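Fold Annotation — chain and its backbone

Fields — amino acid sequence, structure tokens

___
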Amino acid sequence: MIGYRWELRHTVASAVLLVVLATSGRAHVETAADVLPSWNDGPARHAIVAFVTAATQQGGAGFIPPEARIAVFDMDGTLMTERPAPGAVLPVVADVRAAVAKHPELGNEPAVAALLKGDLHGVLAQGESGLAQVVAAAIDGRDADQVAAAMASEERALPNARYHVPYTRLAYRPMVELLRYLEANGFQTWICSGSPIAYTRGMSREIFGIPPERVMGSALQTRLEERDGKVVLAYTGKVEHVTDREGKPPVINLALGRHPVFVAGNVGGVGDVAMMRYAMDRGGPSFALLINHDDAGREFAYAEKGGESLAAAARYHFQVVSMKNDWQTVFDPAIKVPAPPPEPANVANVAP
């Protein structure tokens, strides 16, 4: 495995990025603070800048050809908040009850059963597969195009229970800056999320500037039907593939046909470790970024009980980002951050 390692030469590379601009006849010196202004000066920002600088220096040991500069990001908990409940849950709570009333067998899925009881912790305990089960039940039998339009509309309206603004406004500002920084240096950015594509694609361009065709996610089964003289894709109420844990690399390979060179995930469910190892084992320069949710004041503090993701970071040389220490701000400054509430146990407390 050829992975990324911090070395003394990277300190020099990341201290000053020399970008010569033909402006007023003077050279402009672009610093790390210019390209990632919401990041505090520290090892995480230095490591990112050093990797990107090396990747774009032709002839250097860390050079990555432009066609190979693929960056893949998890979404929930990596690019935007996923607490007190993943955003995909909010638009479908009422629809789940209606769907189960028509098709009682859908209520046998563990996450759906927990949702019907109002048990948020029970839903979250099922992980990404549980989230996919809930959404699949909610949109059973519905036209895929209509679902995409409806979910995109609801995403812009339904508020997060803590911040009282829609999830579409709760992207992590430092991570959006990172997306733009990578793109400015020839990287193509993708999303690989456990949330169903039916939800994720409706928000990717607006929030992250990533077009829907560069979004990978959990797939819900559809069938071709004719309705009112037109063929449509209708959801069947079943999950086709959960894009989480060991399910992420096969989906990435199917979409890209190659390993990404830059990946980012987060602690909380061990969902991104496989994807990050897949990138680090590519046989060339690579970088894996792990977001640690350690900021209860501005966001939330959570991790696996056994600390599996952080242990993997130490073992496989992922770069850990402390939200508390590495980020000057978490969200857009216009977002007011209230005091952390007790985490709700009931779905009724997080959904309208």
Summary: DSSP finds 15 helices and nine strands in the chain.
